Each structure stands twice: as C-alpha cells, then as structure tokens.
Amino acid sequence: MFSKIVKDEIIDRYYKKEFNDIINTYSYIFGLLNGANFDYENLKYSTTSEDLAYFVLRLFEKINIECLIFKNSNRFEVKINKEEFYEKIIDINLIEIDEESYILGMLLTSGRISEPDKSYTLEIRVRRYENDSDNLNVYLKILKKLEEKGIIFGKSSSLKVKYDLIYIKNGDKIAEFFLNLNLNKSLLEFENIRINKDINNSINRVVNFEVANMNKSTIASANQMKAIKYIIDNDLEKKLTSKQLELVNLKKENENITLNEMADALQISKSSISNRFKSVYKLIEEHKKIVNNK
What we know:
Strand 5 (about 110-115) and strand 6 form a beta hairpin. The termini are far apart. The chain has about 290 residues and is an alpha+beta fold. It folds into two domains: about 1-180, Roll (Endonuclease I-creI); about 210-294, Arc Repressor Mutant, subunit A (Orthogonal Bundle). The chain is about 60% helix and about 15% strand. The chain is rod-shaped.
C-alpha cells in the first residue's frame, strides 16, 4: 500500500539525527494529539501497524512519559500514562513548533493517501478544537506557514462527523507536498506510479482508437460486399460507369482488401474510393425505389 510507504518514510525521517531533537519530537507529538484518530480524552491511540504503535510509544518516551502497548486481535493500542502526561507535557504556547514535523505527525497517525494508480487524494482528519483556543491558534498558524511554502490544503467540515478534514486532491500538488517535506522516496514512488498510469492510459487510448478504426473498416467492408452482391443479383453491372465497375471488380476479387490497398491499386485517393462507393450505393437505392414502386 502506498500509504505505508509514505508513513514508513515519515518514521525514518524522524530517526535521522537532524530531526530527532526535542523540538521535532514535540512537534510530532502535538501533530499526533491534534489528529482526529487520537483519543484525546482517554489519551490512547489505536492502529493496525505495529511499527506505528511503537513509534508513538518512543515519541512519548523521548520526553519521559510512560506508555504501554496492548494487542487486541489485529490492532495495537498505545495507552499514555495520564498523570505523567499532564505533569510533563509542555504548554503548546511555550515551544516553537516545527510546522513540517507537526503536519507529518498528523498525517502519520490520522492521515490517508490513496493508491496513485487509482486516484490522487491525501487527507488528514483533524480534531475539533472545541474549548481549546490555544491548539486551534497553533493549528491555524501552522497551516498559514505551510501555505507560504506552497502546501495548500482544501478544508471540509460536517456536523455528521466529529472531525474536520484537510486534503489535497491533485497529483501535482501531492508531489509538491512530498518534495517540500523532503519525502524523497515517497515522491519517487509516487511519480513512477503516475508515469506508468499515464503510459497505460495512453496505450489504452491508442488501442481503443485502433479497435474503433478496425470496427469501422470491418463494417465498411461488409457494406461494400453487400452492395456488390446486390448489383450482381439484380444484374446492375451494365448500369455502372467504367470507374465504378473497375472498383466493384477489384473489391469482388479481393474481399479483404483495405481502403489504402484499393487506392494504391487504382492509383487514386482514398476519398475518391469512398466517393465511388457512395455513387454505387446511390445507384442501388434508386433501383430499390423503382422495384418498390412496381
């Protein structure tokens, strides 16, 4: 799954020395806390990814907050020690949040990226900031900083759900997101999938075009043979001009001959071939009218 590739790289990014400091740790944590998939009231996070569960645990251990992991069926639940959390967590206003690590923390734990060969969607569920103006102000400030870097999210909100949604639904913009946040592996994989998708779509368009042309040619050839049979059955060859007769005889003797081959054989243009057949069809229609009026 493409989402896993992206999230694995986000985790790897944190463990690089330049990102693995207290500022980035808190930025990831506040991003995690403000994602809608985190149970803020009970201080727990549930996921099917063991790697992600242990990453969350290590984030909190980095700031000396104890966590426990419980496995239930195919899910891993990270429970954070409430007493230590409220005692040791820093006020969000007292630290300069790194906007890149913050948004990656949200994407990591509350985000989804669609499979690029099907659609282009990157979306993050955001916790509703009811009675929490401090976190809301920081969140809006971070979105503003990201916009200045060219990372612009669409936004939606509905009373039917308990979260808001920010999203990017454009392939080029998602590629820019990966580029701006130095997710180079994700960017390369994303672009490879996009290129293959474009190639496959181009091939399909060409094949469909060729099939359509083949179908048209087959129908045209069948109509020509049907017309020739009518002419022979109704002894209309003597009514044909020399040019019409030349074309009819050529097609009669070479049933599978193509339009190009007929044009080459008679040394005339393809449009002239079509016009000659039209005149033959007109002769047949006139004969049918005479027969029907008798």
